[in-house]
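Let us practice reading a record.
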Amino acid sequence: MSLRTGHTGLNVTDLDRSLAFYRDVLGFSVLAEGKEGERAYAFLGEAGADGPVLTLWQQARDSYDGGRAGLHHLAFTAGSVDRVREYETALRAAGAEFAHEGLVAHREGAASGGIFFHDPDGTRLEISVPHGAEGAPAPYASTPTCGFF
């Protein structure tokens, strides 16, 4: 397959609140931002990288609705389980809502796993690792953890 994800765009209700979350809690750099009347946006990523990872568009009137077609969740990969736990600590300090308690496996017996939480607009997010979660509990016996939260 020749296509790869370039960036993910999220509609947000309050750009300043979302920037505080994605920049200050998750550590994204602001690559560009702008405002024209009611239209406000920000491009987030890593300085010096090939472009944005995430774009925020202040144009939503309501919070995320997981019962509607569209984005299911946005998953990020961390370099280690320790780094996932650091994010968990920062997210808890920021008052983020978690779907599961602590680090959980992607499925029973899996080496991969992570944390599952919501941004200020309720968008479902995941930070995980491909290895290192051996022995972590799995919230569901037969379905993937990232599928239903």
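A brief commentary: The radius of gyration is 16 Å.
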